[in-house]
Amino acid sequence: MKNPYAQQISQLEEKIAENNTLINDPELGELAKLEITDLESQKKMLEEAAEDLSQNSQDSAKETDTSKSNAILEIRGGAGGDEAKIWANDLMRMYIRFIESVDMKAEYIDDLVIKIRGKVTIGEEKIHAYDFFKYESGVHRVQRVPSTESQGRIHTSTASVAVLPEVKENAVIIRDEDLDWQFMRAGGAGGQSVNKTSSAVRLTHKPTGIVVNSRQERKQVQNRQIALELLRSQMWEIEEEKKQAELGNARKAIGRNMRAEKIRTYNYPQNRITDHRITVSWHSLEDTLDGNILKMLTDIRENMEKEEDSE
Question: The pTM is what?
Answer without folding.
Answer: 0.71
